[in-house]
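Preliminary data (for renewal application), zinc ion complex.
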Amino acid sequence: MGWFDKHCEKCGINVDKNIAPRRFGKYFCSDEHAETYAKEVEEMRKNMPQQKSSGGCC
Ligand SMILES: [Zn+2]
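Predicted structure:
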C-alpha cells in the first residue's frame, strides 16, 4: 500500500510519481492531461484582473 500516493490533477486517477509527468508541482496520468492543465492555468492567469498599483491622480 501507498505506492500510488499521487493522483492526476485532471482526472483523479492514481499515478506513479516516479514516471508521472509534472506541471506546476502537480502530477498527471499523461502528457496530454499535463498539457491540458497547463493550458487551463495559462487561461486562468490571462483572465485574472491585473492588479496595478497606479499611483493616483495626475
Ligand atoms: Zn489524467
